[in-house]
Amino acid sequence: MKPGVAILVAALLAAAGASAAPRLPASGAEVLEELPWRADPQQRELRALRARLQEAPRDMPRAVEVARRYIEAGRREADPRYYGYAQAALGPWWDQAAPPPQVRLLRATLLQSEHRFPEALADLAALTAQRPDDAQAWLTRATVETVRADYAAATRSCAHLSSLADELVTTACIANVGAMNGRLAASERLLVAVRARAGGADNAAVDAWVLTMLAEMAQRRGTAASADERFRAALRIAPRDTYLLGAYADFLLDAGRHDEAAALLAPHARVDGLLLRHALALRAGGRARDLAPELAELAARFDAGERRGDGVHLREQARFELALRGDARRALALARRNWDVQKETPDARILLEAALAARDVAAARPVLDWMRGARVEDVRLARLAAQLFPTLSVDGGKG
Amino acid sequence: MKRLWILISLFTAAATWSLPALAHKPSDAYLRLTLEQGSRDVRGEWDIALRDLDYAIGLDADNDGRLTWDEVRARHGAIAAYALARLQLERGGAACALVPGRQLVDTHTDGTYTVLAFVAHCPRAGPLSVEYRLFADVDPQHKGLASVRDGHKVRTLVLGSDHPRATVDEGAAGAASGFLAYVRHGILHIWIGYDHILFLVSLLLPAVLVREGRGWRAVAGLRAALADVLKIVTAFTVAHSITLSLAALGVVALPSRWVESAIALSVLLAALNNVLPVARRRRWAAAFLFGLVHGFGFASVLADLGLQPGALAASLVGFNLGVEIGQLAIVAAFLPLAYLMRSTWFYRRVVLVGGSGAIMLVAALWLGERLFDLKLLPV
């Protein structure tokens, strides 16, 4: 009777802490793990750099170089383990209240990749005060301020760039803020004009970044053809950029082009955000048989992230719960926690969608306040807000 | 030129920022610790990603990027030495000696892990402290997700370079929450333990009546009924508190099958007494006598829950308090109804006699089940 209940509860708890059963491999030749390094020249270079750093771990220029290369590898592969390695390289200075500026900039970048935005901003504010001609610090600061919906501060940070960086970079920074802040069409026109005058960017990565930004502005205004064209132009330059792949997949999913979305993302299942969109595409295409293992995999990955206790995956997890598991209440709780951390268009969208599904209009109120306060223009957000608050007219999509 | 290069790497950053960094997944290891019951030893199982171990100490002997079981097996000694040097366990303030056992492999969402078994020999009992430093020097974002199992209780800990130490339990907050948990267990136990409820109800049914010749009549006032109830409940409480304490503290131990059978018998006799009264005015004495038996029953539940080490008295008192609260709730629900219905034929014939008969039947089945280890009833 009663002890049975206790045993059952304990067993469930234990199961949550365990995975499949540990096993003994069948043969000595069985391959257990494929490592990411060795053959790749970039990986070989990283190994050599790391070995050199181990000889003199307090050599700051060397440590900064290693950390920067690891951060780049982390972005290229969308693999957060590299951020941990970067942090290790900065270890001798990591806990200092005011580390040397080069270290501090990388610390801010790493903090921000963990969504620890207030700490990142504290570092960036100190850094820009100390070195007002550091373009990178201003740009990073503007980006974090935009994520935190502090558009006035972000605009000020971008303004500092004008004398430090080229015109296209400065314009992209300012247009990106303006497009969130009541000047969508004007920002888009400005950025298109400056890009044309510069004859495209002289650097492929900057061009892909600007094109992605322009595609999203077109998407927010509801001009699908133009968005599609820009997304594809950006993908020709940066075919493996995970953010771009995710953004274009979302565009395709909204347009009902789920087969194209599935094909686009098929090679990128290791990245959770892309696997999630791949699963959404499969479901939209009615491919239930292929979908089931992806759902299990996503559930396991989100569970692992949750046990770790970090909030980096909240937005995608909310989307998973809402669109793939149909658990509106849980999705709403996740989307609200996510909204406390970051406030970009997709964060607003998932919170509105979850609130709509959960019939909890009050939960959507902070997003509505944000939309009206910042004069956000976005056709889909406006449509969702109108469904939630039919009596209010929400400005949107009229540029 | 240099400045531009830096800016570019930043742009890629700006573009990837809003994507979850989970991606492949940050580095985690899973540490499962089990406190051996009746011993000071702690058993451990530690899942560590092969990829992380390769990064820290190198596993890929032929350097081809593919880790085979032979390559991993050849490094088992080095893995155990590396990992266990970065884990410290203490019990009662004294360090435990960690002895590695065999290693298997397991699969998590981001790849294959070694599963390192070990035993910690601890010189003393007491609260367990964990100090976790695995990979702190090569990947400070690594986290150790630990679970500590003590009997049926499982505590989870998230350890890492920014929070390497944790002690399992004790502390004022721990004791307080532990105490409340035991109160809840006590309440729950009496509510879902139908045998205790039926015993109490059997004793309480005649409390609103007075025996008159061969029949019953309603008791005159509430005061008389209350006095009767008070005597019975107090006697039952005192008796089961005595045996619960004695058994929980290990002074007396009885085989649970006999205890459970005796509890069933007590229910049977208490109900029988309502139909064929033997103990008329001294039902409180029966409550006391059989209360002793019920106390042993409570003790076996408490033994299953496990007493909180270092907070023995708190868990015992908490559980007992819970039992009393649960019991008073039952009395409070029963008494007003019975008092209002006491003068009706329905109460005297159907509730008292019929109800007692039904209780006797159930109790007899329980007795059979428990004596002969059968399963006849759903509860």
Walk me through this protein's architecture.
The complex is a heterodimer of chains A (399) and B (379). In chain A, α10 runs antiparallel to α11, α13 runs antiparallel to α14 (242-254) and α20 runs antiparallel to α21 (361-374). Chain A is mainly α. Chain A contains 22 helices and one strand. Residues 1-19 of chain A have low confidence and may be disordered. With 379 residues, chain B is α+β, with helices and mostly antiparallel strands. Chain B is built from eleven helices and 13 strands. Chain B has helices spanning 2-16, 50-57, 69-74, 76-84, 171-192, 194-204, 222-248, 256-275, 283-305, 312-341, 345-372, and strands spanning 28-35, 42-49, 66-68, 87-91, 94-95, 97-108, 111-121, 128-132, 143-150, 153-160, 165-168, 209-212, 215-218. In chain B, the strands form three sheets. In chain B, strands 6-7-2-1-9-10 form a six-stranded mixed beta sheet. In chain B, β1 (28-35) and β2 (42-49) form a beta hairpin. In chain B, α5 (171-192) runs parallel beside α10.
Give a quick rundown of the structure.
The complex is a heterodimer of chains A (399) and B (379). Chain A has 399 residues and is mainly α.
